Amino acid sequence: MIRLAVDGMGGDNAPEQIVKGVLLALEKFDNLEILLYGDEKKMAPFLRNHNRLKVIHTDKYLDMGEKDPVGQLRKNKDASMFLAMRAVKEKEADAIVSAGPTQALVVASHMIIKRMPQMRRVAIAPIIPSITNKKRILLDSGANVDLKPEHLLDFAVYASVVAKSLLHIENPKVGLLNIGTEPGKGRELDVQTFELLSNTKEINFYGNVEPKEILDSEADILLSDGFTANIAMKTMEGTAKSLGKVLKKELTNSFFKKLIVGLFLRKSLKAFKQTLDPNEIGGAMIAGLQNIVVKAHGSSNAYAFYNGIRQAKELVEADVIGKVTKLLEKNEETV
Fold first, then answer.
1. Domain limits, the chain
2. Angle CA(268)–CA(269)–CA(272) in degrees, nearest 5?
3. Assuming Cys at both sites, which of 104, 140, 293, 297 could form a disulfide with 69, CB separation 3.0 to 4.6 Å?
């Protein structure tokens, strides 16, 4: 049985959409138990009794605009996010899922769950969609602005294990986001990272990948610093949403077009939406920690949060932490 700790009060649409996502996950997965942390009175209208759901009451939680997560961790220790995280630290749960403020989740992860000894940094690592239905891992998408080549190498090793275990890719290709595909392109960080990854046998280095190729690249893992990758991810999501709006406008601006859509194109448009919809992914793992932490989208609806729970469950089942630890320890022995 997999047991997850869930922050019931994190997110723009908490607690309603969080609770509904939890109940959907319990309905879908028979091997799942959930510890739900939050204000029981506020969650009550959306809750229903379930033998695999335990509600732990706290009326304290973090605002989505929280600017001082360290201060909150000191003076607001009973906040729903922090209680859920301590449950994982104390082995009462296998992983945590939260749609709360990203900075607070990253800081609390560092201070409560702690970084893996073999990892020099942690990274926010969403699984991103593509136009070919191929899932890719993008990191770091926001945890670190300043990185060194060896940090990106750690991320490549971690993401390679996740790609093998979770995405079932036998020999995942690692790409480096850059302004051009040729060796020697980009900043000093990019040039040095290219050289380091090229000479590392533990990963399958694909080479540089231009941002225009994100949605159809052959690479299974895309690496960059937190600023660059975050911009790339948000640009991709924004473009997908805008394209969807344009299609909807153009295909429904007359009765005849609406009829055509209804008769012939409904399934195709639904498939298009699912291909690029971030709600289908659910969230991003925080790679490099001693336990699984999944950051769901702040604006998650019930289905998106359910997918965040699904992702955390699958990461636990795949024993990603154990596999990464063994590989990194092996690398240290050979240095």
1. 1-119+288-335, 120-280
2. 90
3. 104
Cβ neighbours of residue 177 closer than 8 Å, sequence gap 6 or more: 208, 209, 210, 211, 214, 222, 223, 224, 228, 229, 232
pTM comes to: 0.87
Q: Calculate the dihedral angle through the C-alpha atoms of 240, 245, 247, 249, rounding to the nearest 10 degrees.
A: -170
CATH top-level class of 1-119+288-335 = alpha beta
Identify the CA nearest to 101 among candidates 140, 61, 71. 61
Per-residue pLDDT tens digits for 135-171? 889 998 888 888 999 999 999 999 998 899 888 899 9
Homologous superfamily, domain 120-280: Isopropylmalate Dehydrogenase (3.40.718.10)
Coil vs helix vs strand at 221: strand
SS3 track for 96-146: EEECCCHHHHHHHHHHHHCECCCCCCCEEEEEECCCCCCCEEEECCCCCCC
Residue pair 123/226 in contact by the 8 Å Cβ criterion: yes
Distance of CA 104 to the CA centre of its chain: 15
More confident residue, 280 or 112: 112
Helix axes 149-165, 320-334, angle to 10 degrees: 130
Return the amino acid letter for 201: K
Q: Residue 112 above 90 pLDDT?
A: yes
Q: Are both 1-119+288-335 and 120-280 of the same fold?
A: yes
CA 272 to mean position of chain CA atoms: 21
Q: Name the pairing type of β-strands 173-177 and 221-223.
A: parallel
* Separation of alpha carbons 300 and 108, rounded Å: 21
Residue 27's φ and ψ, nearest 5 degrees, are: -70, -35
